[in-house]
Amino acid sequence: MEEKKVSLDKQAQKKPGKQVVQLSEQDLELKNRLEQYVEEIIQNNPESLEKLKTEVRSATTSMTSVPKPFKFLKESYGKLVEFYNGLETSRFKKQLADFLSVLAMTYGGDRDSLLYLQEGTLEEFKFWGHEYLSHLAANIGSEFQIRLQKQEGADDLLFLVDEIIPYFMDHNSEHDAIDLLSEVDQLQKIEQFVNQVNIQRVLVYLLSIVPFCSDQDELDTLLVTAFNICMKVNEYTNALRIALRIDKPGKVEQVFEACQDAIIKKQLAFQLARHRYQIDEGIINDETLKKIAANQYLSQFYINLAKDLEVLEPKTPDQVYKAHLEEKNKEANFEQIQKNLAATYCNGFVNAGFKKDALMGNKENPWLNNVKNDHTAIAAVASIGLINLWNIDNGTEQISEYFDLSDIYTRAGGCIGFGLFCSGIVDENQPAQAMLLAQLESPEVQVKIGAVMGLGLAYAGSARVELQEQLISVLIETADSVELAAMAALSLGLIFVGKCNDEVANAIVQTMLERPESQLDISISRYFAVGLGLLYLGQAEAADIVIESLAVIPHKISKYAKVTLTSLAYASTGNVLKVQELLGYCSEVTSDDKGTKIDKNYELQQVAILGIALIASSEDVGSEMVYRIFQHILQFSDVEVKRAIPLAVALINISNPKIQPMDLLLKLAHDRDQELSYRATLSMGLLGAGTNNSRIADKLRGLAVYFMNDSNGLFLVRIAQGLLHMGKGLLTLQPYYSDKFLMNKVAIAGIISFLHGCLDIKNLILEKNHTLLYYLGIAMYPRMFFTLNDNLENLPVQVRVGQAVDAVGQAGKPKRITGFQTHTSPVIVSAGERAELGNDEYMPVQDMILENFVILKKNPDYKPEIEQPQRKKTSFSM
Amino acid sequence: MAQIEEEHKLIQLEIKYTTEIHKNVPIDLNGTVLKFQETLQELLKVPIQKQKIMIKGSLLKQDQDLSKLNLKNGQQIMVMGAREEHLLNLKQGKKIFEEDLTPEQKAILLKQKAGIVLPIGLVNQGNTCYMNASIQILRRVNELNEYVKNNAKQGQGPSVKLFNALSDVFQQLERKGESFKPFNFLSILFQLYPGFAQRENHMSFKQQDADECFQNILQTIEPLTTYENEEGQQKNLVKELFEIELKSTIENQDLPDEPKKVSIEKGKKLMCIIDNQSRPVNTLIEGITVSLEEQLQKISEIDQQTHIYKKTQKIFKLPSYLLCQMVRFFWKQGVQGKEGVKAKILRNVAFPKTLDLFDFCAPELQEQLLAGREYEKKKLLEMAAKETDELEQFKKDLEASGKMIPDDTREIYKLFKAKKQQEEIKNHDDQLYRKHGLGLVTGNYQLIGVLTHTGREADSGHYMAWVHHSGDNWILYDDEKTFEKKIEQIMELRGGGDWHMGYYLLYRRLEIE
């Protein structure tokens, strides 16, 4: 009651300052009529109330102006409220309350509409139209929050909600319905209103609010609801997409069991393959499905794409460097080992997955002669793995001979290479396990390291229990070689990425606890922490217990592990609290009161910065915000802290060459601090990885001249050039796909493993551990869009590719891409772009995001346009 | 089913080898692994030792029992291994890598293969930059460099030792490939001239005057550079290269009747006086002029009275290499009981890239030079005419080649010059390295070395050597560090601030053929 009075006072205040607006005759008449009605109502005349209601309800209006009756009733509102407050409870009073509720939309205070409504008849409120109901929904939302705080029941509100939702759903206002339901924590109720017609709009809106969930529970409800509605209307492809995001056992299998359509199942299997989800063999028994889910088609289609785009011919490092465009003044006169090493990597990256290359494939003049019998030979042999990525058959053929050489380095390289080309491909004979476990029994530490790395690469994300015991024993029992133990920890982390495997976690914590400090001081020992962190990738709170258990480790690596674990556990969640926690590490004071410098753990701050980037990387707004934070750090922090910025910038923009970060990195690459400039150089490669971006290419050539007398710098420029032209521009390192909705954990793990190596670029990448570069191999994926028929053959159709436009919640059928070009599929899609089918002749077998592999079917409603030009049919055999 | 298979023991497998798939390969489960491998060798042509048979995540070992592997009919197994023809050809030797070579090997290889001598610095051994810079400048005198390098002397005297040490330093500068400490040379220099071995507060050595060091070295090795030329005459190389003969005339200003006294003085450098009381000196030429004319007081032989005499010096013989010393250091008397200091004049004194000494020469010499200068003029005209012809030819070639022709004649000239650049650098370098005595002398000298000093006092600061290398390219030797420089940067060493400023200039005589 009190509140009403307040609102009354408000009206009273507004009254002075009378408007001197000339009214037309018609309006004047309307105004007088309305005022008359009001007078009559105050005289207790229910009929006038009905008349007034009819008057108001029948008023039409444009989108922009307030209906006239509302305008003219402004002065009467106060009178009516006054009258209403004086009335005895009666049906008339209730009816008047109904009307006041409507008027309160314009003249009332906060939540007045709701209060009047609840005092009214509750019979006719749905007839007042959409605008009123939206207003009411907002009132309900805020009232619900207040009740929640006071811990009062809200059944009356829920009753109203149940009444309003069907109206919204029937009137193309699904987003209002979802907003209201999520306000009152009743999201699951949307399920009953979803049907074939509105599923698209509901789903798009539901998924687009995913990044804005405040806590895990809310997110879970949202995803489960979305999953359920997809399952309800048999939208399996979307259901699977959500199931992969939910990442709880059983969901994916549920989709497969529900789906009966053989073709849709194939489509689902492609989705699993992209996510590297290893489904139980019992669920899919069809041979073709198995092959698809085992990723065995990937290599084939990728090479077809290269054929189609005429880039199948091997490219030499020199073609990539385009050294003739560099302003050079001195010819190097010698075979330089570092130059050849750079060429090895560049060749591997550029020809990744094409089965043929320019260096290793040359049998007459083996490239091995151009590298030394040391770690460079490891890199050379392992590059075969990159070149034959995803192709076990070819890989085994090319690499087998290196296992027969007695040299330990070629064998170690063979192990890494073997792991690379088996990565993500499931073969029932498990060749990688067979081969590499045998090599693990070799007495040479170097070969063991290779075997351990190879296993990690090959089985990343597979959670293969057969390897757990073996690798744990390597981890625990290796006393003298920290490198071997650390790589074992990393491989375990990769294999069980995001699986929260307690046994493995305990083993890693144990080994960190038991090892002497001198071992943990070695740079490579950081991979104990990384391996541990990877186990909890994206699992948020699940890592808390392990984080606490780290406190018992006396060495400073425990802090490193803590920050790594926190950042990996909350990777891509956008969790603001965790970002703040990590920022706390970065803002430690540099000097005490007397101005003397405190010995700071700069490494910790660098990991924290990397962590911030990782947490925010999944979503655009968050990325923009941390980019700003980085600018602050660049301006105000010590150079040691700044050194992490290039890597962090590369991480949030990986394979996405935007101008702003590009310019920043270029500036940092010329920094006086050598370490910073090295990292920025390498980061430029990551920024443009697989894009062939000509601007970056040009800048890198400039850097090659800049680093002319610095062989280390030049080495990194060459690597960056290799990354830029990765897969001749057909690959991406972007771990997020499906509109950034899904995260490929293996890809993230690969990138993070490499970036931690870059935190000590001088002692790791520029020394013996350059093979860490190969961890990028498991993050690679073709950025292609293939259209297939139901026999899994290429089906060339017109495809439009253009800049993606956010069209969520907009009315009608808004354009979802802009500035597009039309190509015949298969096509390549860059970061920030989206593909659409060019016409309606074909449609996806089920609604889904058009990327990777999509099986098409004929559109039953398609009517061809007569003047349509004939398409050139290019088709290649499987 | 399983029982039936056990009875049969003969099952058919699918063998996968690289991209090949062999179906229905019979295998006897009772047989040995070796037998199975022999079957595979026959089928796949892969030697048994190289076969790697992979079944369900493990490698098949020799001693395994096939019947216990639980193989099923039609099961696929994978075989890996290289065929004979695929074997890698690694017989060719590994290449030699730059990283494996010592700097010394690298330098030798570079000299042999490409004729490149890397610029190598000398490590400072405690304020010994004056010596390092002197050696680097001295080394640019290519005739001396060659002689010292190739004519190590026998004997025990300290000067022989110094000569041999210098020879060693010169050789190592070409061979070492990285900067080094000329330790031996320094210790012999200290023996010979203990003044240089003074220490500052018993810490490092004191800074010394580079001029003193330079002249001392020349003086020490001079007697050791006598040689017989092709005509059998005894010659002295240092004298030939550096000795400058001045014809000095002393006349009495007060008694014009007193006969002029004419004598020949020999020296190894020209001075450029900067501290010229009231008249400011702005250029090298002015400074030399001042130094060649002085007034002195002397007792006359005629009346036994002190008179003012004027001493005028004219150059009588031009050296191959002209050394000019900027007299920047002087002793500043202490005022009000303060100790005096060796002060330095920071004044800006410009020096030319090409120095014309004609005006300083004695008339006899000038006559000789005139012939050369006439010839040079003629030659220049010829060159200009030739260039015009060449330019015409170039234009024609350009048109014939069908390329885009710039409208602007200046553009064409630029292209033409760019094309001729290589040739011009070669000619230019030839003039600055070739043997003297073959062409006509004109009195022109070209700058090829600058020894600079930076700092406010003579006893401190830092010496560096800037030495001509090729074309417009110079090399700066800053102790162990070397940098590439351009001629424009050399001309900025004229002083006038706290930047490095020229203290010692090395000019080389130009001859015209």
Automatic annotation (TrEMBL), chain A:
Region (Disordered): 1-20
Swiss-Prot/TrEMBL GO biological process terms: proteasome-mediated ubiquitin-dependent protein catabolic process
Gene Ontology CC terms, in alphabetical order: nucleus; proteasome regulatory particle, base subcomplex; proteasome storage granule
Residue ranges of every copy of the 26S proteasome non-ATPase regulatory subunit RPN1 C-terminal domain listed in the record: 808-862
Name of one Pfam family that matches: RPN1_RPN2_N
RPN1 N-terminal domain segment(s): 42-326
Compositional bias (Basic and acidic residues): 1-12
Record keywords, A-Z: Repeat
PANTHER family: 26S PROTEASOME NON-ATPASE REGULATORY SUBUNIT (PTHR10943), 26S PROTEASOME NON-ATPASE REGULATORY SUBUNIT 2 (PTHR10943:SF1)
Protein name in the entry: 26S proteasome non-ATPase regulatory subunit 2 homolog
Lineage start: Eukaryota, Sar, Alveolata, Ciliophora, Intramacronucleata
From TrEMBL, chain B:
Signal sequence, renumbered to the chain: none
Enzyme Commission number(s) of this protein: 3.4.19.12
Matching PROSITE patterns: UBIQUITIN_2, USP_1, USP_2, USP_3
Pfam families (alphabetical): ubiquitin, UCH
Keyword Protease recorded: yes
Catalytic reactions on record: Thiol-dependent hydrolysis of ester, thioester, amide, peptide and isopeptide bonds formed by the C-terminal Gly of ubiquitin (a 76-residue protein attached to proteins as an intracellular targeting signal)
Any one of the GO BP annotations: proteasome-mediated ubiquitin-dependent protein catabolic process
Chain ranges of the USP domain: 120-510
Residue stretches making up the Ubiquitin-like domain: 11-80
Keyword Transmembrane helix appears in the UniProt entry: no
One of the record's GO molecular function terms: cysteine-type deubiquitinase activity
This protein's UniProt keywords: Hydrolase, Protease, Thiol protease, Ubl conjugation pathway
PANTHER family to which the protein is assigned, alphabetical: UBIQUITIN CARBOXYL-TERMINAL HYDROLASE, UBIQUITIN CARBOXYL-TERMINAL HYDROLASE 14
Family under the similarity heading: Belongs to the peptidase C19 family.
Protein name per its UniProtKB record: Ubiquitin carboxyl-terminal hydrolase
Organism: Paramecium primaurelia
